[in-house]
Request: fold
Amino acid sequence: MHIYWKVRLLEIRQLRYFMQVCESGSLLKASEVLFISHQALSKSLSLLEKELGAALFYRTPKGMIPTQFGQELLEDSRPILAEWDQLNLKLEESATRHKGKIRLGLSGGLIYFGSKKIWEYFKELHPHTEIEPYEHGYIEGLKCLKAGTLDAVVISDYENTDGFITYSLPSTRRLLIVEKSNPLASKEELEIKDLRNEKFILCINDFAYNKFLRLCQAEGFTPDVRRTSDTVYMYKLCSEDGLCGLCIDSNTSNLVPKYPELRAIPFKDNAFPYPMMLAVRNNYPKPTLIKELVDFLTYSLNSVLY
Reply:
């Protein structure tokens, strides 16, 4: 049986001390190399011998000479300590890869990522990675990404025509907001063709707007759309003027109850989803940090969406 099975509960430090005494041939010389006192080293060796139940050295006037048991331990300790050193080296390299800063634009998903608490939690999980979040409109966010003043941008409905590296994040549903007096309110699910004769007030970016147009045009009509950048204003016009709006699933619990005359209805087969992704500048030097961020954003979204 190899000696390392007998010393599986020993500390790496004890093996290092033992090997250094073997190499130095004396406690005094070994203690100087290890920068510990002669007494502390002697005590450590005595404790090791007691734990193993066998003497490791012959203590002679000429120095410390390993016993047969000590020679076996020395032989088996070398690969153990070599692997330990290799592991420490890999850990140091990993720590370097996971250390850095991401300047993050929030052009989508603000309802999820706009809170300071979520980034405080990220810091707890990844103390060596600094996130600098900035709220930007999607146009400004993409401009900053191109200019290199941002490293990554969370954005919805993005059609990557800029050549950025992109990572898909969990998506959620879009729902149609209608007055309860609208005939559409009697439906449990809607198809795009059901929207043919409706008028809309939409708070969506250009990517989503173009997708909506294409979906409607594929059904043979072009929707009558007004646009706004104010979600609350959209709800107000839906309530007061009978217009139709679009919202994301997780937002309905916050705003729909404030407008009891409105109803939010999903699309059949999630025909018009709210997809989010992370767009990253191509020359960002720390891809490991980005993967770390993607994992965190995915976990965070899954915990609130599903």
About this structure: The chain has three domains: 12-95, 100-170+274-305, 173-272.
